[in-house]
Amino acid sequence: MATHVITGAGSGIGAAVARRLHARGDELVLHARDAGRAKELAAEFPGSRTLVGDLSDPDKLSWAFSHQTLPDRIDSLLHIAGVVDLGPVGDLTPKSWRHQLNVNLISPAELTRHLLPQLRTARGHVVFVNSGAGLRASAEWSAYAASKHGLKALADSLRAEEHGSGVRVTSVYPGRTASPMQAKVHQQEGKEYDPSAWIDPESVATTILTAIDLPRDAEINDLTVRPGR
Known about the structure:
Elements: E1 3-6, H1 12-23, E2 27-32, H2 35-44, E3 49-52, H3 61-66, E4 76-79, H4 94-122, E5 125-129, H5 142-162, E6 168-174, H6 180-189, H7 201-213, E7 222-225
Parallel strand pairs: 1-2, 1-4, 2-3, 4-5, 5-6, 6-7
Helix pairs in contact: 1-7, 4-5
């Protein structure tokens, strides 16, 4: 039975991945921002464990983890949580920049740092759910795109560093996916949101499971997923 640490399991792509892994009997360690959210996730996924730490404050993650029991073995670390706050460069404040960089980039790096020993032991897999914005930047997407471009660099460096230890690293670049985040993006863009126009989170979950279930003789480095309708 494999053990998976998942961020962002409360909704969208993260919830879809957690449901699939839970249904097949794998062990889940679900990240939560606080104790209340951890209780909700534990109730939604019976038998799972939780790991509490606020991704918006990466400086405190080390302290938070020191007061919890981390898994002895981790077969996959799935970075799926993310935040977005659109706006022109002339309007975005340092607070907005820091929040997106903290949640989308610095905390994934910090979480990976803490769990690398267990990943090495298991010859595990790190998956970074990135974005199309991690490959190109559009108007009003500067802070979010910067965080996701940085996430690509993090993944590429980690892959080069850990290849010899048997740790696989995959970046997944979904296009617009029907999720609460996408509803927020449409609100910020002033557009009507129609979830049926975008990728179903289950489809992105399928690509993530394809990557982590791939036999050990191969590794998917980068996987781009775009709306098919």
